[in-house]
Amino acid sequence: MVAEIEIYNPDTLGSPLGQYMHVTRVKASEFLFIAGSLSADKDGNIIGADLDFEAQCQQVFGNIHKALASADADWSNVVQFTTYLVNSNWIPPFMEYRLANFPSMFPSGNYPPNTLLMVDRLVHEPFLVEVQTIAAI
What we know:
The protein is of the alpha+beta class. The protein has helices at 53-69, 91-105, and strands at residues 4-8, 23-27, 31-37, 78-85, 114-118, 129-136.
């Protein structure tokens, strides 16, 4: 069975406050749960450790893409993100990253739901962003 994924905004809810939809409805035989992705490369080097938020986002979403590909999935299989930022000052750059990159990742314009949380810190001090992903395959 191929997953049936419908991402939408119900008429009974207001418009989203960013690049996401309120609801994902999924009919699938299998789910993929991807642990929070950080900006570490395959060798454990922290990309963007010098507070380069753009580089960290590129590495984080690059890592997610690799995890999806490992299960023969892609961005169209993503049903939800949970994003952790270490400071609310990173919200505008995060939104800018999404505005610049999500249209090519999600060409339909149906961006998966995303919960955005502020945390004190991540596993290592230089990490600024972490994104957990759920996909249906």
